[in-house]
Recover the amino acids of this structure.
């Protein structure tokens, strides 16, 4: 692929990203619904742990449960809405498949970063046992983990947007694919809460980087088969 | 498969089952007679992973050639892999009850087979949720490739680096298979083990051919009506 092709793909991706961003800013559908989802989930957790002392390592796991299900309820929209509104044909005519994938991935990653920031603020305020001691591990985990999560879930969203019973299918298909990532992010978050040094989390961080790289590469290669059928 | 081959397979597997229990295997530290599970459990797990690979392989073949036969083969391999995964999980779990004291304790090996089962489950859910044939074929092929790319990490790498009680894992006494990948089986055990591996592989081939034939007939039947 030459430089011109590469630029062409990137320009298309930027256009898809801008389109999704404008339509989200106009309706604020995804973000509003997702914030309410997080509020509801967090309240259930707070009700059920009221009066209990939640151990720091358990609180690290609960944080990722919220993030995982928030992602599962919000990120499928990127492709499902194109199918529902019947606009996927138009997109197929205008931009290359890889541009669509990269644009959607960028939008989902941005959405997940905003959402995770809100989740973490709300969670730290309401969950007293969750105090991050090693900030470097925590920030890297959120940064890399969210990207890996966005990458895998964007691709699975493209698959399920063509299927029936999309909502149920999405977490079912995503969970086994995401499990390697989830195990390492939960472990790294626990290390950051326990106050381990950055070196201790090195193994987990390596897994997150390689996971994000592998999943993004594979989804770019395979996206043609999903998109054009 | 010819009839004589099926008969031979039946006799062979009977022999494997018989010698699996009857062959004197000597005293293995920490395991004793429980080591006999290697004759059945390991070939089943091996086939579960092999079938998973074959399913992806036929998936790639479908994406390249767009021939529905490959999709039927891919689904068949996944079905067989699912059955063998369940068998491996159940035998392993019973063994764990008597060797480690509980049916399930999230040992890395148990986690990895659990993930394999989840993937098969997700694969079949995806297939049932797609009505158009070509779409079902290409999307399930894509899913099995993605799963195969992310999961080896689980099935192959994690059980070997994490602390595991499973024979062959880091931290276990490794009486049979140690972490250098060397096997310490005495001649009797080795003989039955390889015989079982061959037997199970042919069992897989036979089941695979039979299920593929049924799948193709069902597909043609559907196309005619």
């Amino acid at each position: 692929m030459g430089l011109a092709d590469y630029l062409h793909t990137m320009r298309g991706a930027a256009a898809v990203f801008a389109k999704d961003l404008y339509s989200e800013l106009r309706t604020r559908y995804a973000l509003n619904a997702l914030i309410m989802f997080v509020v509801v989930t967090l309240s259930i957790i707070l009700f059920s742990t009221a009066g209990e002392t939640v151990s720091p390592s358990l609180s690290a796991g609960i944080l990722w449960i919220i993030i995982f299900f928030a992602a599962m309820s919000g990120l499928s929209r990127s492709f499902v809405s194109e199918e529902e509104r019947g606009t996927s044909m138009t997109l197929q005519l205008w931009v290359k498949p890889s541009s669509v994938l990269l644009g959607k991935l960028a939008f989902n990653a941005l959405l997940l970063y905003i959402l995770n920031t809100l989740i973490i603020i709300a969670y730290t305020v309401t969950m007293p046992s969750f105090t991050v001691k090693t900030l470097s591990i925590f920030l890297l985990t959120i940064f890399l983990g969210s990207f890996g999560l966005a990458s895998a879930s964007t691709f699975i969203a493209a698959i399920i947007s063509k299927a029936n019973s999309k909502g149920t299918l999405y977490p079912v298909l995503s969970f086994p694919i995401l499990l390697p990532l989830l195990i390492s992010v939960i472990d790294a978050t626990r290390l950051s809460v326990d106050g381990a040094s950055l070196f201790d989390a090195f193994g987990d961080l390596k897994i997150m980087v390689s996971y994000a790289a592998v999943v993004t590469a594979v989804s770019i290669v395979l996206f043609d088969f999903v998109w054009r059928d | 498969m010819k009839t004589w081959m099926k008969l031979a397979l039946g006799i062979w597997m009977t022999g494997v089952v018989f010698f699996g229990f009857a062959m004197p295997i000597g005293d293995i530290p920490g395991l004793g007679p429980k080591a006999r599970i290697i004759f059945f459990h390991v070939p089943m797990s091996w086939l579960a992973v092999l079938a998973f690979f074959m399913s992806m392989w036929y998936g790639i073949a479908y994406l390249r050639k767009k021939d529905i036969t490959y999709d039927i083969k891919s689904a068949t391999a996944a079905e067989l892999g699912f059955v063998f995964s369940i068998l491996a999980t159940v035998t392993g779990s019973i063994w764990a009850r008597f060797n480690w004291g509980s049916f399930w304790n999230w040992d890395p090996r148990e986690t990895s087979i659990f993930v394999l089962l989840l993937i098969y489950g997700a694969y079949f859910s995806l297939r049932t949720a797609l009505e158009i044939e070509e779409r079902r074929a290409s999307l399930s092929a894509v899913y099995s490739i993605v799963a195969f790319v992310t999961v080896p990490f689980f099935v192959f790498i994690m059980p070997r680096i994490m602390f595991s009680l499973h024979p062959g894992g880091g931290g276990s006494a490794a009486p049979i298979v140690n972490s250098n990948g060397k096997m310490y089986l005495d001649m009797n055990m080795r003989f039955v083990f390889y015989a079982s591996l061959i037997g199970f592989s042919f069992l897989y081939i036979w089941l695979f051919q039979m299920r593929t034939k049924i799948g193709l007939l069902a597909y043609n039947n559907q196309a005619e009506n």
Summary: Residues 52 and 216 of chain B are 20 Å apart (CA to CA). Chain B has one domain: 34-220. Residues 34-220 of chain B form one domain. Residues 170-182 of chain B have pLDDT under 50 and may be disordered.
